[in-house]
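Dear H.,

Thanks for agreeing to be a second pair of eyes. The structure we're designing against is below in C-alpha cell form, covering all 322 positions.
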C-alpha cells in the first residue's frame, strides 16, 4: 500500500505534563480510515488516508507538487522488494498498513483525551466530567461558567444535541459506572469496538431509512443531504457517487438493498474489502500497460486521477455528529 506521510508536528505528552496544544475530548466527527462519516456522508479524504497515508485533511494536499510528493513517498514505502514496481499484493499490504496506522493514531489520541477529561483521576470518566468539557468545546458556555450548567439548563436544539450525546455516552458505558479506558476508546473511536461500530451503523440506518423498513434502498442511501443545494451539478455528482458506492461497496449480495450487517461491514475499517476495492480502482486508473504492476512513472502520469477519486470530489459539507 502506498504510504505517504505529510509532515506533521507531533507534540510529545506524558500524564504528568499535558501537551501545550489543547486536547479535544469530544467525539471527532471525522474518523480517519473509515469510509463514512458519523452522519452517513462519504469520507472525502478516504482515498488519501488509506492509500497515501495522509493523516490530516489539508487544502494544500490537492496541489500538483504535493500530490507528486505523496506518490513518490508512497511508492517507496510500498515497493518492498525494491524492483521499481508495485504489485497488487504490495499495494494491498500498504493500504492495510496505512489503515492500521490511522487506528493506532486514534488510540493514542483517545488515551490523551481520557487523561484530560478524567478530572478526579479515578480512572473513570463520568457523564458530568464529560459534559463539562463537551459544552465548553461546543462553544455553549465559556470555561469560567461551565460549572453553572448541566443538561437541564439548555433549550431546544442544544438540549437535543446534549441528549443525543448523553445517549451515545450511555451506550458506551456498559456497566453504568462511567467510562473506563476501553469504553472511552470505543466512545471516541467506534472503529475499535464492534458494539460501537454497530451503534454507528444503526445511527446511519435511522438517518437514511426513510420508510423505516430496516433496510436501505439505493435511492435512500443516495438521497440529497438535508440543506439547500449549493450547486446543481455538484448535487448530481454527489448522487452518482453515492449510487456507485452503494453498488460496488455496500450491497454485497446485489439485491438492491443494504441490510444493517452490510452497512456494518462497510463502515468497519478493518474489512479487507476496502483494500481490495482500492487496489482494483487504482490499477484501472494507473496500470496503463496492463501488466498487473505499477511503475512510478505510471502513477505520476495519472497523479491527478489518483487523487481525484469520488471520495475527494464529494461535496465539502460540515459533518455534524449524530
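And this is the sequence the design step returned. I haven't edited it by hand at all.
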Amino acid at each position: 500500500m502506498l504510504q505517504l506521510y505529510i509532515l506533521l508536528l507531533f507534540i510529545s505528552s506524558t500524564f504528568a505534563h499535558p501537551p501545550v496544544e489543547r486536547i479535544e475530548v469530544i467525539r471527532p466527527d471525522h474518523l480517519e480510515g473509515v469510509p463514512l462519516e458519523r452522519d452517513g456522508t462519504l469520507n472525502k479524504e478516504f482515498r488519501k488516508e488509506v492509500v497515501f497515508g495522509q493523516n490530516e485533511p489539508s487544502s494544500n494536499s490537492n496541489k500538483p507538487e504535493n500530490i507528486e510528493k505523496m506518490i513518490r513517498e508512497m511508492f517507496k514505502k510500498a515497493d518492498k522488494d525494491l524492483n521499481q514496481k508495485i504489485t497488487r499484493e504490495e499495494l494491498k499490504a500498504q493500504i492495510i498498513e496505512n489503515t492500521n496506522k490511522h487506528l493506532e493514531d486514534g488510540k493514542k489520541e483517545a488515551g490523551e483525551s481520557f487523561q484530560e477529561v478524567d478530572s478526579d483521576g479515578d480512572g473513570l470518566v463520568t457523564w458530568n466530567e464529560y459534559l463539562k468539557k463537551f459544552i465548553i468545546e461546543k462553544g455553549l458556555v465559556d470555561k469560567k461558567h461551565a460549572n453553572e450548567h448541566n443538561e437541564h439548563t439548555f433549550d431546544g436544539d442544544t438540549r437535543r444535541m446534549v441528549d443525543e450525546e448523553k445517549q451515545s455516552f450511555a451506550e458506551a458505558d456498559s456497566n453504568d459506572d462511567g467510562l473506563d479506558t476501553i469504553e472511552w476508546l470505543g466512545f471516541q473511536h467506534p472503529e475499535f469496538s464492534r458494539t460501537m461500530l454497530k451503534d454507528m451503523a444503526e445511527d446511519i440506518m435511522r438517518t437514511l431509512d426513510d420508510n423505516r423498513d430496516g433496510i436501505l434502498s439505493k435511492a435512500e442511501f443516495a438521497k440529497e443531504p438535508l440543506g439547500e443545494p449549493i450547486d446543481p451539478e455538484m448535487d448530481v455528482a454527489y448522487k452518482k457517487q453515492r449510487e456507485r458506492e452503494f453498488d460496488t461497496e455496500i450491497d454485497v449480495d446485489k439485491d438492491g438493498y443494504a441490510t444493517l450487517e452490510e452497512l456494518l461491514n462497510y463502515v468497519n475499517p478493518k474489512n479487507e474489502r476496502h483494500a481490495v476495492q482500492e487496489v482494483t480502482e487504482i490499477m484501472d486508473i494507473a496500470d496503463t500497460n496492463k501488466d498487473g504492476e505499477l511503475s512510478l512513472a505510471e502513477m505520476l502520469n495519472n497523479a491527478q486521477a489518483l487523487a481525484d477519486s469520488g471520495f475527494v470530489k464529494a461535496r465539502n459539507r460540515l459533518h455534524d455528529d449524530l
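Two observations from my side: The beta strands are 86-87, 216-217, 257-258, 293-294. The first strand starts at residue 86 and ends at 87.

Warmly,
E.
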